[in-house]
Amino acid sequence: MFFERPASGEVTILVHITLETEYEREDPAEFEELALSAGAAPAVFITGSRAQPSPSHFVGSGKLEEIQAAIHAYKAELVLFNHALSPSQERNLESELKCRVLDRTGLILDIFAQRARSHEGKLQVELAQLQHLSSRLKRGWTHLDRQKGGIGMRGAGEKQLELDQRMIGQRIKAINKGLKKVRGQRDQGRRSRQRAEIATISLVGYTNAGKSSLFNRLTNAETFIADQLFATLDSTLRKIKLRNYGPAIVADTVGFISHLPHQLVEAFRATLEETAQADLLLHVVDAAHEMHPEFISEVDKVLVEIGAKSVEQLLVFNKIDLIANCEPRIQRDKNGRPEKVWVSAKTGAGLDLLQEAMSELLAGSMAQETLRVSPQCGKLRSQLYEKGFIENEHIDEQGFYELQVKLPQQYLDRIVQQEGAEILNNKHAVAEKSTAL
């Protein structure tokens, strides 16, 4: 990383202030989970309420003294605020408390810095960190200053702050150049999948909803999973085979959270484009969490921000093993299309229903026909078998294959037009109609 991250395991004071003017309030329990995910050792959780934040220190003088007392009592090294602090508030608090202070955005950025493993993930996190840091630069030393009169007093002509800003600007430019290259590689991969007619399914959802567990179940992968926020940061792609549809690509993506820092959305835009360009979104929901309706709303907000709201979405209510008397099932809308699927990634319950719903939504209208294919079309027959479209077959007296197939209507139309396959059902239907006339 461009600058050092604090070591984990620090004794930490957590601060949460309920503001009357706050339209959307942060969840204190989620904040504590974030602190633990970052490796902090919370000593005490200080809460309070105010009509509005103090412009200088965010908290009032009485609460500031309470935080100071807690720092001395527990020998704390860090104070975390469950709010977005302005640069001046952060500086004033550090000056007053004689201790490092971090707001909610800085805490989430630190977790991302710990989780990044791939080169792309590290670049994206560093970009977000630098964008956040650029507004929080402080003058560290005075050996560089503006030019003065007198021998030996002519400085470099720039303040240290200006040099830092220039270096950060150059590094941001270099990272953006690298991410542009990554974006081009992803675009190339998407075009290849489109030419091969392979659909992309993207897993989205609130952090710790069980996306990676579900991904591992669907793809037989071994992606890292843990009961903590933002366990997955680097996106992973795997190929699966869906019955009555064929091959598809499943993408596991970073989890969302309420008030996801704007810097992260911008920095991870290259990765999140996989979501915006997907054919189907599996919106994974922790059905056992009492706040899951609010989590669904937060995820939908991020989907709007990244341009993915128009992508077809299937709600997957996960962790039904934690809910009493909850059975796996598919819920359909008024048109009979799958809308919600209730599953357990931990036990595997309902995964067959999920695959059925995914195939149905990706395929659109399914056609069940008998195709007559010439012996020279062995490649087409092989492809139909590979995609799982053939249910039965036999060879007629002329040596032609008669294939009983169930496949997407659009795929059937294409192979009839381009591959010369003949639909026997339609031919028989026309013959019957002529006889009737």
Automatic annotation (TrEMBL):
Binding residues annotated for Mg(2+), in chain numbering: S212, T232
Pfam families cross-referenced by the UniProt entry: GTP-bdg_M, GTP-bdg_N, HflX_C, MMR_HSR1
Hflx-type G domain segment(s): 199-366
This protein's UniProt keywords: Cytoplasm, GTP-binding, Magnesium, Metal-binding, Nucleotide-binding
GO MF term (any one): GTP binding
Keyword hit for Cytoplasm: yes
Listed GO CC annotations: cytoplasm
Binding site for GTP: 205-212, 230-234, 252-255, 318-321, 344-346
Location(s) in or outside the cell: Cytoplasm
Keyword Magnesium applies: yes
Known cofactor(s): Mg(2+)
Function per UniProt: GTPase that associates with the 50S ribosomal subunit and may have a role during protein synthesis or ribosome biogenesis.
The protein, known as: GTPase HflX
